[in-house]
Amino acid sequence: MPTPTSTVDTAIASARGLRKVYGHAQTEVVALDSVDVDIARGSFTAIMGPSGSGKSTLMHCMAGLDRPTAGNVVVDGAEISSMNERQLTKLRRTRLGFVFQAFNLIPTLTARENIILPVSLARGRVNEGWFEQVIEAVGLADRLSHKPTELSGGQQQRVACARALVTQPSVVFADEPTGNLDSVSSHEVLSFLRRSVDEFGQTVVIVTHDPATAAFADRVLFLADGAIVGDLADPTVDRVIDALRAHSDASRARRASAGPR
Ligand SMILES: Nc1ncnc2c1ncn2[C@@H]1O[C@H](COP(=O)(O)OP(=O)(O)OP(=O)(O)O)[C@@H](O)[C@H]1O
């Protein structure tokens, strides 16, 4: 199926023929198999699928955290598959933002110091106007001098989101960003990510198991057995649940028709 031209024209991140194989011989696992994907600039994309379907592997290969076995990844015009480690580190630090389930804040630094860390590490200057906008949007203005242990889980994850955005990255990648949060804090974090797309034109890609989380996105990609098996625009919770059910039924049927291995 050809990719719509409009998506390709505005794609900020693309993968072609992406394949990732872990292990060798009997222990070989094909985590991704010929995946083609385009992420539109200024969009919010959720990646869903059963455990082991390749969601994290896809995100890690697109974010330069893992190297594909074959295929190409282009982020904001840069072909990252051929970059060396130094180039990848620089790309991750200056052009990508990351949010992880476990927050990953530095405990000895204040919220402000954690947020500006990517700028400090790159020996750059903080864009104070942008910093103020992000802090206002994330609702952390009165918490900037607090250390992570003095913040709730939701506040810590909002610090992590602000840190991901401080460099105005090409893409923010978030792996289960609400996995450790209660529903109120999850809503705050997701609303912030949504706002960063709608008001600031940022691009966000998240991995999630949760239909309510995926419903914050503009688009949901469904993975099964290392391949993209579905692509849902304008998701609602109900439509995501229906799609998950349909893909799970199709996957069971595929396995049954393939017979015992
Ligand atoms: N470092 C690794 N070494 C070997 N196999 C791996 C490695 N990382 C992932 N895999 C395998 O690759 C496949 C895809 O893993 P991946 O973590 O991408 O799936 P996922 O959809 O993100 O799963 P989950 O929802 O459980 O996090 C799985 O079969 C997994 O066991």
UniProtKB/TrEMBL annotation:
Keywords, comma-separated and alphabetical: ATP-binding, Nucleotide-binding, Transport
Presence of keyword ATP-binding: yes
A GO MF label: ATP binding
Domain ABC transporter: 13-250
GO cellular component annotations of the record: membrane protein complex; plasma membrane
Gene3D superfamilies, A to Z: P-loop containing nucleotide triphosphate hydrolases
Keyword Cell wall biogenesis/degradation annotated: no
Database matches in Pfam families: ABC_tran (PF00005)
Protein name per the record: Putative ABC transport system ATP-binding protein
Originating species: Rarobacter faecitabidus
